[in-house]
Amino acid sequence: MSVTRRTILRTGAATAALLPFVGPLRADGKQINVFAHRVMQNVSNGTKGGDVTQAFTKATGDTVNWVTFETGPLHDRLFREASLSESTVDVAFILNTYATPRIANLFEPLGPRMAKDPVEDPKDLFPGLVKGVTIGDELYAVPFRHASTGLHYNEEIFAERGIKGPPQTIEEFVEVAKKCTYTRPDGTPVVGFILPGVAYPEVIALARAWDADFITPDMKVVANSKEMVAALTMIRDLYTSGAVPKNLTGMKAEDANTWMQQGRAAMAASSMSRNGLYNDPAKSQVAGKIKTTYFPIAEALKGKYEVAPTKVEFWSMAIPKNSKNKDLAWAFIKAMSSKDATLAAALNGNGPVRGSTYDDPRIKEALPYSEAERKVLQVSRVPLPAFDNAARAADLFKEQAETVVLGMKSPQQAMDELTVSVQKLVS
């Protein structure tokens, strides 16, 4: 998941407008302890949107103590703290892949609070994000930050190959990728498409063009569906035709970024926020030439979706069951998830989790792909439901996908074997 959004916005948001969404002023000033990744603190205390937490601190008279870690250590420390009889952690930011049923009993169910004192306009939150932190029928966290997948393309390369715009179907995408595999006039060899390997998030991002899943939200393993097989067949076809790098199975996200920045790839599927990285004059040789849009859907699904319901990863705010300040923690979550707070954080570089945020002219100006991103978020969902054996399932997926790319197994054979193996992990 990308932890920076390289955007430049010209003006901030007034924090005073946030005040109605928290409780009355407190006289006994407390400190609320918030465990998070550093990026959450950064986007909550930026220069463009202002100090997003100021509304909460002014309305309550309390202060916010940020305790930040890298992703892995954050969750390790958080789960240990949440397992104690009492904890100093009041609010915890959780990445969606860690929100498993096993850890749900460590956190406060938010349904009762939503019924009695809900966050502002819950339906404005993108549904795929809310569903991603709903375990069973209970909500356990409120979304705060996302990274959604889009299609980046080099318009200069497109022009050289006589292509007027981004592909509108996955079938057209394959044609464009092959046509853009060539040697440029300056001698630079180009591949039509770049992706960082074939781990499940990367494959799922493409497979959603057929609305495919690896594991459904109700924990059914459907890796051997015709839709997933179609996606792997496409990747294998692009590999054998040379439209993706020959070292595809060993590529990393940094490699894919470099290829795009050097003009060695015509298209890439990655977080839409990478648009800033690809167009950064200080780091990219093709600055100003990379456009970003939604990933296309299969022709057969054009009537069902406008854009592919591709993958999204996100962070959410939760309350540990053993928190000593649950009411205060809920006031913080309400303040930080309000419409004005979401906008202010977005002005600071956050990925907004509300549809209404994309209506603001400052967001539209800063993010040329904003409308495409909103369309994606309206239908996107997590690449894999969180469950205890998810890491092992991910390893098995990657192993089988690599055998397909390298021609060791057919897509159907590999996915049939994967389905049998992973079903045992979810049973």
Q: What portion of residues belong to β-strands?
A: 5-15%
**Overall pLDDT level:** 91
Distance between the termini: 28 Å
Specify the helix fraction band: 25-40%
Number of helices: 18
Shape: globular
Number of strands: 11
What order do the SSEs take from the amino end to the carboxyl end, as H and E? EHHEHEHHHEEEHHEEHHHEHEEHHHHHH
Radius of gyration from the alpha-carbon trace, in angstroms: 22 Å
In short:
This protein is of the alpha+beta class and 427 residues long.
Topology at a glance:
Elements: E1 31-37, H1 38-44, H2 54-60, E2 63-69, H3 71-82, E3 91-95, H4 101-104, H5 111-116, H6 127-132, E4 134-135, E5 138-139, E6 142-154, H7 155-160, H8 170-179, E7 182-183, E8 189-190, H9 200-207, H10 226-240, H11 253-261, E9 267-271, H12 274-278, E10 290-293, E11 312-318, H13 326-336, H14 339-347, H15 361-366, H16 370-379, H17 390-405, H18 411-426
Parallel strand pairs: 1-2, 1-3
Antiparallel strand pairs: 3-11, 4-5, 6-9, 6-10, 6-11, 7-8
Helix pairs in contact: 9-10, 17-18
Question: Which key features would you list for this structure?
Answer:
38% helix, alpha+beta, disordered N terminus, 13% strand, 427 residues, seven-stranded mixed sheet, globular
Structural overview:
- With 427 residues, the protein is an alpha+beta fold.
- The chain contains 18 helices and 11 strands.
- It has helices at residues 38-44, 54-60, 71-82, 101-104, 111-116, 127-132, 155-160, 170-179, 200-207, 226-240, 253-261, 274-278, 326-336, 339-347, 361-366, 370-379, 390-405, 411-426, and strands spanning 31-37, 63-69, 91-95, 134-135, 138-139, 142-154, 182-183, 189-190, 267-271, 290-293, 312-318.
- Strands 1, 2, 3, 6, 9, 10 and 11 form a 7-stranded mixed β-sheet that branches. Strands 4-5 form a two-stranded antiparallel ribbon. Strands 7-8 form a two-stranded antiparallel sheet.
- Helix 9 (200-207) packs across helix 10 and helix 17 (390-405) packs antiparallel against helix 18 (411-426).
- The longest helix has 16 residues, at 390-405.
